[in-house]
Known about the structure:
Blueprint: H1 2-31, E1 36-54, E2 57-72, H2 82-86, H3 99-128, E3 130-132, E4 142-144, H4 146-151, E5 158-162, E6 165-166, H5 173-182, E7 186-191, E8 194-199, H6 204-209, E9 219-221, E10 227-230, H7 235-239, E11 246-250, E12 253-254, H8 258-265, E13 272-279, E14 282-289, E15 298-300, H9 303-306, E16 310-312, H10 316-342, H11 348-351, H12 355-360, H13 368-386, H14 394-407, H15 413-443
Antiparallel strand pairs: 1-2, 3-16, 4-9, 5-6, 5-7, 7-8, 10-15, 11-12, 11-13, 13-14
Helix pairs in contact: 1-3, 1-13, 3-10, 3-13, 3-14, 5-10, 10-13
Amino acid sequence: MGYLIMAGQLFLSLSILIVLHEMGHFFPARWFKTRVEKFYLFFDPWFSLFKIKKGETEYGIGWLPLGGYVKISGMIDESMDREQMAGPPQPWEFRSKPAWQRLIIMLGGVTVNFILGFFLYGMVLWTWGEVYLPTQNAKYGIAVSKLGKDMGLKDGDNVLGINGKALTEFGDNQVRREIVINNAKNLEIEREGQKMTLPIDPKFVQILSSYESKDEGLYTVRMPFVIGKVAPKTPAEKAGLQEKDQVIGVNGKSTPYYHEFSQMVLPLKSKKIELKVIRSKDTLNVPLTTTAEGKIGVQSYEPAYYFKVERKEYSLAQAMPMGVQKGVSFLGDQMKAFGQMFRGKIKASESLGGFASIATMFGDIWDWERFWRMTAVLSLILAFMNLLPIPALDGGHVMFLLFEIVSGRKPSDKFMEYATIVGFVIVIGLVLFANGLDIFRIFK
């Protein structure tokens, strides 16, 4: 069921983005009295799932969900309509319009995606705000993953800053970002009351950007284990565990923090264990048998139960500029990441992914906040990728139009035809490569 939810979210998000992107081309074309022959969600080689004709335009849904398109009369595109291009230019055709009008038509799609990305970022902030744990409120320090231990962190450390930048909000996302994007050299931490600087090995740029590490954090907040929920018909319920019981030990070994309990119990699959539990003022020993997955059927309270969290509320007037700021910051990170890739510090084969990789980013639970945030991210990525100067993409058309405006010379139709074929092969190759990586990772 989780995979269907992820796939459904990806399908809906891409459908929204594709339709709005193509509308960005469609409306400027109509404003400049350029004929639009087709407007399609998804591609329709050989046949379409649905189509209807209104006026001079056929609207439809194709069966190949790799994008969408508008077919504009007199434009050399992936349709390769040589018959139409062989005839003399007509007043309603794209090729008959001034270069500046053609440029606006071609920039319409990415413009919509940029605006949409910024807008959605702002709307998410306005609707849900931002909940965060101030670094200073994480009073028990951090619980470190294997990856974090490899970097030199220890349970109970407090991460205060990276490369001289103070970390006011708890979490490892900014730490990962600074290492991968900005080649951060050191972490500022507090260990057993002493402040110190922890050097970061350059190898972690590739490690943290690799596919294998994408779901492994460096650390989480270290917190006690107070039971927030007991699932029915589980070992915990049968043993009589209750909400607000605090688990402090397993099999005679002290486990004052949740991650210590998890690390100790998870390997004990279908085993009899004894928990040490504090209930009100009493200390109890509770025997039970774990499940085949090494679980007992309880959930801990969320961090907000143990720590004072903060919420940033935004008015609409505040949220929109902040949405633009966050969107611009994200785009800056993408460009820096490309730079790291070209310099060989990030491996393309490790960091790229296809539709399956994107779908997992939505999560297996339908969360509207996450859905719209991810849609904002994908909108900006779609705009950025479409602006790459590759023939067959919007950026390729823009590149040739700018050449025409500056030089006063228009590339020949034959040159544009060959360039589009080359660009289309490159784009298809990249799509196959990215999705091939997903398939390879599944069977690896």
